[in-house]
Amino acid sequence: MTDPATTPEPAMQQKIDTSVPHSARIWNYWLGGKDNYPVDEAAGDAYTAVFPGIVTIARSSRAFLRRNIAYLVSEAGIRQFLDIGTGLPTAENTHEVAQRLAPEARIVYVDNDPMVLAHARALLYSSKEGATAYIDADVTDPDRILAAAARTLDLSRPTALVLSNILGHVADYGRARSIVDRLMDALPSGSYLSVNDGSRGIDPVFEQAQDAYNDSGAIPYNLRTVDAITGFFDGLQLVEPGVVSVTQWRPEPGSPAQEIVAEHGGLARKP
Questions:
Q1: Keywords in UniProt for this one (predicted)?
Q2: SS3 264
Q3: Which of 2, 50, 114, 195 is at 20 to 30 A from 76, Cα to Cα?
Q4: Cβ-count burial of 113 within 10 angstroms (0-12 exposed, 13-18 middle, 19+ buried)?
Q5: Does residue 132 carry a pLDDT above 50?
Q6: Chain mean pLDDT for the chain
Q7: Which residues contact 52 (CB under 8 A, 6 or more apart)?
Q8: What is the DSSP letter of 169?
């Protein structure tokens, strides 16, 4: 365990609301985790009753992130990661994948969910050669994130910014774009941006289920078109095969053909 980038006590004062379903806990439920409440399981079951494919999307998204991190460490030589909207710890977290390949890798996680904070110790476990830290902050406050991340990461060196299933929580597309731009502007040439989000225009049943979820009183998550997701990478150099369904992004050699799912993502380098 390494020293965290910030001491996240402020969020410890927040009460975990078990009366309202929360996306991070529902996602954890779909991934087979146990860090959720009956209200989350009920919401997750209601969603899968309409669209059972959400479990495939959740697990495919996680596998996409793992392949991204492996590429960044093994092929791009990245040793620093800023993972915003990390969610609840499950298998194959960013630091686990990165430090397995490069024990000296340094990872900063960012989230503002008090339940994620309660599990920060699991997230903060690090190889002795590297470092991990947790920041209690919201994606809509990039300046706070950057200031805190700089206590663990050397932001003058190439860094991978990971935004996995978080930008959909920023309803206004222009604001989401400006957040990405602000974060990437603070990183040097040779840094990378990894984004994946639920996509609109691929699966109408998925869209129906997501729209119903957003109307349920839970924290909404906005699906975006593939073109809109691609727009987050403007000015950057996309790694082949570009922005694709997460199942199609550099699948493991010899793996069976994967179905296209309504979750798109990509990885790009800052020139």
A1: Methyltransferase, Transferase
A2: strand
A3: 2
A4: buried
A5: yes
A6: 89
A7: none
A8: G
Cα 142 from Cα 179, distance rounded (Å): 6
Pairing assessment for the beta strands 131-136 and 106-111 based on DSSP bridges: parallel
Q: Residues of 37-49 as b/e, b for ≥16 C-beta within 10 angstroms? A: bebbeebbeebee
**Contact status, residue 64 vs residue 92, Cβ threshold 8 Å:** no
pLDDT in the model for residue 67: 97
The pair of structure tokens assigned to 189 is: 């040439």
Q: What is the pLDDT of residues 217-245, one digit of tens each?
A: 778 999 999 999 999 999 999 999 999 99
The CA distance from 159 to 147, in Å, is: 14
Contact between 163 and 87 under an 8 Å Cβ cutoff? The reply is no
pLDDT tens readout for residues 153-184: 999 999 999 999 999 999 999 999 999 999 99
Rounded to two decimals, the pTM is 0.88
Q: Dihedral through CA 145, CA 118, CA 264, CA 266, nearest 10?
A: 50
- pLDDT tens column, 84-105: 988 776 768 899 999 999 999 9
Q: Among residues 10, 24, 149, 143, which one has the least CA distance to residue 86?
A: 24
Can you tell me the distance from the alpha carbon of 214 to that of 165, in angstroms, rounded to the nearest whole number? 15
Buried b (16+ CB within 10 A) or exposed e, 206-237: bbebbeebeeeebeebbbbebebbbebbeebe
Cβ 94 vs Cβ 64: under 8 Å: no
